[in-house]
Specification:
Elements lengths: L2 H12 L1 H10 L23 E5 L3 H12 L3 E5 L17 E3 L5 E3 L15 E2 L3 H9 L4 E4 L7 E3 L9 E2 H20 L10 H15 L11 H7 L21 H7 L17 E4 L5 H10 L3 E2 L2 E9 L2 E8 L6 E6 L1 E4 L3 H4 L8 H9 L6 E7 L3 H4 L6 E5 L5 E4 L10 E8 L1 H8 L3 H12 L6 H4 E8 L15 H12 L5 E3 L11 H21 L1
Parallel strand pairs: 1-2, 1-14, 2-10, 7-16, 14-20
Antiparallel strand pairs: 3-4, 5-9, 6-9, 7-8, 11-12, 12-13, 15-18, 15-19, 16-17
Length: 524
Amino acid sequence: MTRRQLLSMIGYAAGASVMYQSMTSLGYAAESPYRSGKKLQGAPKKGSSVVVLGAGLAGMVAALELRDAGYKVKILEYQDRAGGRNWSWYGGTEYTELGGEKQVCEFDEGLYLNPGPWRIPYHHYAVLEYCKRLNVKLEPFIQMNFNAYLHAQNAFDGKPQRYAHVVSDFRGGISELLAKAVNTDKLDMPVTDEDKEILLAALKNHGALNDEYKYVKSLDTSARRGYAKAPGGGLNARPEPSEPINFKELIDSRVWANMDVHFLEEFQNTMFQPVGGMGKIGEAFHRELKDLIQLNAQVVEIKQDDNGVTISYKDRNGGEEVKTETADWCVCTLPLSVLSQIPMNVDRKMQDAINAVPYAPAVKVGTQYKRRFWEEDEQIYGGISYTDLPITQISYPSDNMFSSGKGVLLNGYVFGVDAVQFSAMPPKERIAKALEYSAQIHPQIKEEAENSMAMAWSRVPWTLGCFGIWTDRKREEHYDNLCRMDGRIVLAGEHASYIPAWMEGAMLSGLAAIEQLHEKAMAQ
């Protein structure tokens, strides 16, 4: 067995995080360097103009850089606010979805729900850079909490298990199995005795194994998973070890299915959130660009010729009159689900790409509670609990901890077929169903819930879905045609990135789009 085969075996059996640690022990792993973004170089022809369609983050970051480079910029936005899916709901926020169902947020002052993006990874450099540039104050977002829960309906009598118990006992059991595998005569050269010794030491440390490479009840294992009686002071201070979950029972439970989500690069610490709600980013861009933005502008047609572009739109507050905006160039950031329904004279390959990408029907439900019972009763401060119920997760607020007031939980983030079913319900039914599921993890929810809001993204008129869904085959066939500038029109948005559903993808696509535009403008 070669080192590569051994590491592959570890990866298949125990997951990427264990394989990475083993690679590090053998000196193979390294961090990737940071690459800074580029600014537009040179100046366009005097008076060169750009119309940007959509005041989401892709459109506003493009408009900001184009303006600073000397272009004359105009943004047309469908909504009565800027920010797109970068949005926070506060008390008094009104929202009407397709079908006419209207919700009015009743949260207390200072409380909010992010119906769209809700966290920023540390390596999303563009988002962090523009937050700093626009003075958007950030605070830590707690993604992984060892005291949060992992839950499966048919395991442990339906009782949620603390993340610390599951992750400690799972990696202990896996490490014990791998130690047995490494410690047999079946692993011949070129896995050397030195390799074997290093890996056994790494596995013993990783899994809190004893000298016989077994994962058993001990103070060492309890230092990972928690004690039956925690160490204290005085005469009765001696800690008592806790009993690990039987490894076969743990494997059969499948609660580990969501255990490693925190180790995916996009969810790794440190993560951040704007103080006061994710929508503060969109608000900051709006303040910077307010003189360039026309709100309530519903685009109905996009035309281009050799001389420029003409955008036809209706003022959503002014009847059926069709108005026009002309410019030399166009950056279009409209979601493909909407753009596919708007006449636009572009190459067939770009139009096929626009038509090829469906959008996810995700649903979010958030509820205000009379008290912060997750902190007071269960000592959960921030983080996320995961479940195999349709709600998939419950997220706990990372701000205002230890306050005696109320709080808002994200009671569910629903995907796939479950999201389709939730979207078919009126908002009140969505909320009731989410609370019913959430109460299987936190029974206090039945008594403590006060008021809720529900977002079904497939019923949002200006996006018709949460984010673009690519497959490898569709990317191979359509992605370049989608992103490549066609005449005087270039597309941007999270759908025009390899980071869909994230603000970083939207911003990077906006920056990439204006590089193409600027290069073409300078060539002319």
